[in-house]
Amino acid sequence: MKPALVTGASGFLGWHVAQALLRRGIPVRALVRRPDAVKDLDAELAAGDLRDAGAVRRAAEGCGLVFHVAADYRLWVRRPREMYDSNVGGTRNVLAAARQARVERVVYTSTVGCIGFVKGGLGDESTPVSIEDMTGHYKRSKWLAEQAALEAARQGLPVVIVNPTAPVGAHDVKPTPTGQTILDFLSGRMPAYVDTGLNIVDAADAAEGHWLACEHGRPGERYILGSENLTLKQIFDLLSSITGRPAPRLRLPWAVALAAAAIDTLRAELTGSPPRAPLDAVRMARKKMWVTHAKAARELGFRPAPAETALRHAVEWFQAHGYC
Fold first, then answer.
1. DSSP assignment letter at 40
2. DSSP per residue over 145-160, as a string?
3. CA distance 300 to 38
4. What pTM does this model have?
């Protein structure tokens, strides 16, 4: 059996995608920058960087499937060009390598940030959206990368696009920005909240969605992989019920949150130390990022667990691994 190439397998969602493949007996080849730093992954390791077209091409040789999960996921970056080189240039390198290797299917991991949102309603794959709606370098770079994947599909490459929402759960090593919010709650560093909302999904379920997209997805189509829409206050209330810790009661006015984020981000620009509350993150939070995964349920058979299950998995993993 030909191996499946997985980029980002040393990270959070990519690790779960690799596990989903391995459970099905599919050998995994993982493109990683530092093979010596990769642990608990039963895969063939291919050393290389997404920005190195030659390394990506060599990693894809002989593979039957490609899952491009890797991305530079930061809501603040001092040198934006690095993010575009990885997220846009790296995606183009993966697509070119997949075409040369004549793979059977490519699954590209985009983000819910590339979905259009409806005030007072739910966004879906057909909601109008443009690059002007993208807040910050992360969203803009992922938007451009998604456009590259769509163009490759129009040119005949069998690319299916998945748009995960906010994955949480076990093995959030770095952690992700959403995982850091959970950690801040567990550590008592979350005295207030803002009026925002997001869609939570268990990372393991999102990984299963990747496989379902590979099996049943239509090339050139996008599929939202999400579960439950919640306000930030509801998320903290669920975390409170799971842990017994009190949920924050103070709702922070937007003007105060924006001012604090602006000051913190300016400090980061001057010192190079990442801000705790990036300005782009607060700007993104002005919209409730609520969507429906009805298309993935209908066409792929995607059936995710409730948000409480995902949050519980995250809490248990962080506690078991000494993060809090």
1. S
2. HHHHHHHHHHTT--EE
3. 31
4. 0.95
Q: SS3 for 288?
A: coil
Question: Please, which residues have CB within 8 angstroms of residue 41's CB and are 6 or more apart in sequence?
Answer: 9, 10, 15, 18, 28, 30
> Which of the 8 DSSP states describes residue 29?
E
153: CATH: 3.40.50.720
Question: Quick check: is 59 in a domain?
Answer: yes
Range(s) of the domain holding residue 27: 4-169+202-227+291-304
Query: Angle, to 10 degrees, between the axis of helix 203-216 and the axis of helix 12-23?
Result: 60
Q: Which residue matches tokens 């183009």?
A: 92
pLDDT (0 to 100) of residue 264: 81
Q: What would the pLDDT profile of 223-261 be if each residue is shown by its tens digit?
A: 999 999 999 999 999 999 999 999 999 998 888 878 887
Q: Which of 319, 19, 311 is nearest to 179 (CA)?
A: 311
